[in-house]
Each structure stands twice: as structure tokens, then as C-alpha cells.
Design a protein that fits this description.
The chain is of the alpha+beta class. The chain has helices spanning 17-21, 79-94, 123-128, 136-150, 158-167, 171-183, 199-206, 209-224, 259-280, 284-316, 327-352, 358-361, 366-385, 393-405, and strands at residues 34-37, 44-51, 56-63, 66-67, 71-75, 102-106, 111-114, 121-122, 228-230, 239-241, 246-248, 255-257. The strands form 4 sheets. It has a 5-stranded antiparallel sheet with strand order 1-2-3-7-6. A 3-stranded antiparallel sheet has the order 8-10-11. It has a two-stranded antiparallel sheet with strand order 4-5. Helix 9 (259-280) runs antiparallel to helix 10 (284-316), helix 9 packs across helix 11 and helix 9 runs antiparallel to helix 13 (366-385). 45% of the residues are buried. It binds adenosine-5'-diphosphate and the ligand CSC[C@H]1O[C@H](OP(=O)(O)O)[C@H](O)[C@@H]1O. Ligand LNRAV4D5 is lined by residues 41-43, 67, 69, 176-177, 180, 233, 237-238, 250, 354-355. Its EC number is 2.7.1.100.
């Protein structure tokens, strides 16, 4: 249950972090370290540890027995630190260049010591500033194809797969997603958070029976479909980038779930950034170019994911059914449908749910923010309700463009 600390657990401070890094022999002199708490996420402490003399540095991320964004009234399991460490190590088996290196895991203190990625920027910040990352699609496609294929029944033996499902049971973090992504935003729930002026659009959404029926199916898939070890929170705040490097961080929501969930969350956050550029890029030519780039990232990620997953399917696929004509086509057909549906849920929850995105919330002009949030709600609903008709990735990008420019 959430909130129960391990024996010996205590929240770290800038003074006590040294006790965690000292035994690692990473630094020349642990008495000369500069330590700052830099966490800007919703849940954990993140300490940046630097040794100025050598330029060496590390990150110590620690889970608190509650959700930092809400406080002690929202107890939360410390086991999420183990899950995060394990998921990073698992991903490193297949895509070591695309995740931070884990140096040490301390289960007692619920913390992970990892590579410092301060030379990278959080993708969400870069995209808000209109930065183009030429390798982003290729890198995220590779991350998705490699991690999802190799942790699925397509590759693992049925026994190994079930062992992995057991190791990544993550009920409390899943419950957050079940509530905050799939349930609360679709009902009049106290966790929701939106401007009063959006009430009529939100009412329309709450009264849309078809939308609720379709969202119920997506939630059921999230609850029941243990396809692969998914990252579980793959938004643009969970990705660090430079021009030629990409690192996926923060897999504390990892569990065995639907493959489409990770792809859908990534696409949804690109779609929200697309909308936000009606404000962030006031120059129309620059805006068009950047918005075109965002849709290319979506199309390119899907194309490269599909190509790599297909290659893995054909060369490493274990199950006899994987060689039956049509099975692979059926898999990708359903995957795209679910990806689009999950993307719709993420777009809606990031607009009116508990956890918003800076892309839209940083828009100072209230009227513009409202107009774009309204569009986000329309986009999310269309993606959920029309996902079966959107049978090609270009249908997704056309829908984003169509709703945004209507
Ligand atoms: N490996 C890292 N290197 C540098 N900074 C990091 C690293 N991991 C996290 N951070 C910083 O801490 C912030 C919060 O980290 P995150 O893992 O998203 O925490 P939370 O789980 O609380 O959301 C990131 O936005 C980033 O600024
Ligand atoms: C109370 S958790 C809300 C929200 O925060 C998580 O994101 P992050 O850890 O990256 O800040 C996750 O998306 C949860 O839904």
C-alpha cells in the first residue's frame, strides 16, 4: 500500500545525498560536491550532484512516500523507484544509447543514481521554443520498437513473459493513470482543473455518451491487455534531447500494458505542442514550418517503428502464428487504432484533468489559451470516436491539422 516507507527510509536532503554517492567511488573528493534539488516533476526529488574540480556529476532521484505535487495527503508507493530503475536497466539491454545509465539502485532509500543528462534539454521545453530535433523520430521509433518487441510475447517465452509481468506489477501508479487519464476528465470529478470559461465545452464532453462508451473500451484495454513492458508515461517531459541525442527518462509508471499506450502518449503531446504554436510562433511562416515538422515526427516515428518492429517480427518472432499470413497486418491495424484512441485520452486529460502541459498553460493570453484548449477537447474527442476510420498514420496528421486550423 502507498505511503509505507521501507525500514531505514528517510527523505534525502542536499546534506545527506552524499551518503548515497560516497560508496560509489565516482568522485575524487565527496567533501567538495555541489548538490541542488532540481526536480520539477509531479512526484519525486531529483538531486543534481556535481564535483566542480573534475567536472564529474550524477543524478540521484528519490521517491517520496507521497505524490510531491499534492503532498502527504496522497500517499504513494516507494516501489515506483524499483520499477523505474528496473525498467531503465531493461531498456538498456536493447537501447543503451537511448536511456540514462543507471549506476546504482538503493531500494531502502527508494532512490536511483543515474547519469547526469544536464547537457540535454527536456523535449517539451525545446519544442515550445520551436527547436527542431532531426533524430527525434528515428530515436523514439527505435526506443519503442526495441523495448516493446523484446518485452512482449512476440519475443519472450510464455514463462519468461509471465515472470516479467510479475516483476512489473505496478498497481498504484496504474491507478493514477486509470483515474487521471481515463476516468476523471470524462466526469465531473474534483481532480479536474480547467478555466471556468471552458465549462460549456467540458459539459458537452461529459454529456457525450458515444465518447464515454469509446473511452471505456480504451480504459478496459489499459486495465487488461498485458502486451509488453510499456514506459507508461511517455510524454515530452519524459524525453531529454540534443540535436543528435535522445534519452528517455522517468519510467516509474512502467507495467505490462498495451503497446499502443506509449505511442499514443507521445503523439498526443506532439499534437498539443502543435496547437500551442498558434501562440508560441507568432510568425506565420515559422509556425507553418514548425507545425509541419511536428506532423512529420508523428508520421516518421510511426513509419520507422513499424519498419523496425516488422524486422524484429520476421527475424526474432517466436510464436508460430507470427508466420501466418495476415496476422502481422491485423496487429498493426489494431495498433494504430488503439494508438489514436490513447492519444485522444491523453490530449483531453492534459487539457482539463489534474496534470496539464506547459505548452498550453504557459500561454499568457487567456483568450488564445481558451481557444486552443477548446480545439484540444475537439481533437481528443475526434481521435477517440473516429479512431476506427483513421486507418493510416496520415489520417492522424490530417486530423490534427484539420481540427487545429478549423
Ligand atoms: N538523468 C537526469 N539528468 C539531468 N536532469 C534530470 C535527470 N532526470 C531528471 N532530471 C530533471 O529532473 C526533472 C524531473 O525528473 P522526472 O524524472 O521527470 O521526475 P518526476 O518523476 O518527479 O516527474 C526533469 O524534468 C529534469 O529537469
Ligand atoms: C499526481 S501524478 C500526475 C501525473 O504526473 C505524472 O507525470 P510526471 O511524473 O512526468 O510529472 C503522470 O503523467 C501523472 O499522470
Amino acid at each position: 500500500m502507498g505511503g509505507h516507507a521501507n525500514a531505514g527510509y528517510h527523505p534525502l536532503t542536499t546534506e545527506t545525498v552524499v551518503q548515497v554517492v560516497a560508496p560509489l567511488n565516482h568522485f575524487a573528493d565527496v567533501n567538495q560536491l555541489e548538490i541542488k534539488e532540481i526536480g520539477d516533476g509531479n512526484l519525486n526529488y531529483v538531486f543534481h550532484v556535481v564535483e566542480p574540480a573534475t567536472g564529474k556529476s550524477l543524478i540521484v532521484k528519490q521517491a517520496l512516500p507521497y505524490a510531491k505535487v499534492v503532498g502527504e495527503s496522497w500517499p504513494l508507493t516507494l516501489d515506483r523507484a524499483r520499477i523505474e530503475s528496473e525498467a531503465l536497466r531493461r531498456a538498456a539491454e536493447y537501447v543503451p544509447a537511448l536511456v540514462p545509465k543507471v549506476h546504482h539502485t538503493d531500494e531502502r532509500l527508494a532512490c536511483t543514481v543515474m547519469e547526469d543528462l544536464s547537457d540535454h534539454v527536456i523535449l517539451r521545453k525545446g519544442l515550445i521554443q520551436g527547436q527542431v530535433y532531426p533524430k527525434l523520430a528515428e530515436h523514439i521509433a527505435t526506443f519503442l520498437a526495441q523495448t516493446l518487441f523484446h518485452t512482449s510475447d512476440f519475443f519472450l517465452s510464455p514463462m519468461d513473459k509471465k515472470e516479467q509481468v510479475r516483476a512489473f506489477i505496478n498497481p498504484e501508479l496504474c491507478k493514477i493513470t486509470e483515474d487521471l487519464v481515463f476516468t476523471d476528465p470524462f466526469f465531473n470529478h474534483e481532480t479536474n482543473d480547467f478555466p471556468e470559461a471552458l465549462q460549456s465545452s467540458v459539459d458537452a464532453l461529459w454529456n457525450d455518451l458515444e465518447l464515454k462508451r469509446e473511452t471505456a473500451k480504451l480504459k478496459h484495454a489499459f486495465l487488461t491487455r498485458a502486451e509488453a513492458l510499456v514506459h507508461g508515461d511517455l510524454h515530452t517531459g519524459s524525453i531529454f534531447v540534443t540535436t543528435d541525442s535522445t534519452k528517455v527518462i522517468d519510467p516509474e509508471f512502467a507495467y505490462y500494458g498495451p503497446i499502443a499506450f506509449d505511442i499514443g502518449q507521445f503523439f498526443a503531446n506532439l499534437a498539443l505542442n502543435y496547437l500551442s504554436h498558434f501562440h508560441h510562433s507568432p510568425d506565420p511562416q515559422q509556425r507553418r514550418t514548425f507545425q509541419k515538422y511536428l506532423l512529420e515526427v508523428i508520421e516518421e516515428t510511426w513509419a520507422q517503428f513499424k519498419e523496425q518492429f516488422t524486422q524484429l517480427w520476421q527475424t526474432k518472432g517466436q510464436d508460430v502464428y507470427m508466420r501466418v499470413a495476415g496476422v502481422e497486418d491485423d496487429f498493426f491495424e489494431r495498433l494504430l487504432e488503439d494508438t489514436i484512441g490513447f492519444a485522444g485520452c491523453e490530449v483531453i486529460r492534459r487539457t482539463i484533468g489534474l496534470a496539464h502541459v506547459a505548452d498550453l498553460d504557459s500561454i499568457s493570453d487567456e483568450e488564445t489559451q481558451l481557444r486552443l484548449k477548446d480545439k484540444a477537447l475537439i481533437l481528443g474527442s475526434v481521435l477517440i470516436k473516429q479512431r476506427r476510420q483513421l486507418t493510416r498514420i496520415t489520417h492522424l496528421s490530417e486530423t490534427i491539422r484539420g481540427v487545429a486550423h478549423a
